[in-house]
Each structure stands twice: as C-alpha cells, then as structure tokens.
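LOG
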Amino acid sequence: MRTVIINRSKWRTGNTYECATGKGEIAMANPQGFMCCLGFASMSFGIAPELLLGFGLPMNLPGGVQDRWPEVPKGWFDKAAKLNDGKIDRAEKETELIAHFLTIGVKLHFTGEYTEYHNI
C-alpha cells in the first residue's frame, strides 16, 4: 500500500474560513509552497510540484502526467477536493480523507503542526 505523508504546515485547504489551512491559491500546488491532499498524493506518484502549479485536479493535468495516477472511480477526485476544502473541522477532515484515500489503496499519514496564517 502506498503511503502519502501530508505535512500540516504545508497543507492548503478551504478558502478563508476558520477551518482553512495554509496560504495562497487553492490548487494542488501553489507558488507559496503549499499543496492540497491531491498535490501531496501526486508527488508520491512521481509528479513534480512545479507541474501541479495552478491545477485543481489530477484529471486536468497534461496527458502523460495525469497517467501517473492509478485509475480511480468516477467522481473520486471531486470528492477528495470537496473533503479537502470543505467547511469541516480539521480532525474530521483528516479522518474523512484517510478513509477516502484508502478506497484506492493509498494510506494518508498526517504529520507536523498547523501553522496559523492571517490574511490567507
């Protein structure tokens, strides 16, 4: 089983509400060095962060790059993004994402501490 490590101090979620984390554009990777859950997972499949900049979902990546992901059920990426960015508390968000990724044989491991940013 593949394990993906998500560093909470570099995890970008949500928008600007109280449960959001990270800063900068909401994307798989942004210029400030933050990534969503799909960005961290994409890196584990050998996709460099610079190829993820500005993209919201792996299915939108250029051909050849997106093919590094395993086949996932229809709607799987959308659900992952909704869980990542949803208005649920951080602990519940982690629990829900762990369960969701397990459905494709990927184990998420969260590490580090959250960093609070004002003016996300």
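LOG (cont.) second protein
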Amino acid sequence: MMNAACRDIKDYIKGLVDSSEADISYEIFAFYLPDSPDQCIAFIEGPGMPPFPGNIRRGSVQILVRGKKGEMEEGYGQMEVVLSHLHEKGNLLIGSTNYHTLWLQGDVMFTRDEKGRPIWSTNLSVDRSE
C-alpha cells in the first residue's frame, strides 16, 4: 500500500537535507502546518484527477513555507530550494512508490497568517503508482 504523497515528498526532501544536497534550514512537516515553529515547510495532501490506465494515481500536494514575521525573502528562498528539487522531476522511487512525474500547477502565491507571518504556497501535481 502506498503512503500519502505528502509524506513521501516530505521524506524525500528531508533525505536531501540530511545528505546536504538541499540547503533548507526550516523544519519540515507532512499533513499540516503547525502553529510553531515560525519557520517551517509543510507538505499537505490535496485532490487530484481520475487515475490513468495502469492505476497511475494523479494527485496533488500543497507546499506551504512560512517564515518569521517581517522576513519574506528568506521564506521565498526556502520555497525556491524546495521547488528546484521537485518541479519537473520524474521516475523517482520513494519507498515502494514510483513517482512518474512531479510538476507545478502554477506559480507561487503569497499570503500572511493571523499572526502576520508570511506564507508562500503552491501546488505540485503528482503522478504515481506502486
């Protein structure tokens, strides 16, 4: 059985950080964006499209990067690092799941939370199978 895509993507990025292949200094989470720490990255499961023949699931993962209040550039930089390791990637084996293609659904959007902290967000389309 496949893991949730958001968990696999989080584990993939965390593995890159642990092996010094990705310069990410924020804490990384799957499934939700916690209230703390201020500086964090969250991968959240999203809706998708009907499967392709061959049981290729077509889902999405929302990527959220939150920074400290008043520090917008650093958070945007962390998002760019994450995207450089995910956008237009394919044929990745994460656990027992083959990720055929990963690509951005659109550009990065900016907002703030109720505490005034900057949040950068985008969505990643995910085609995968066991």
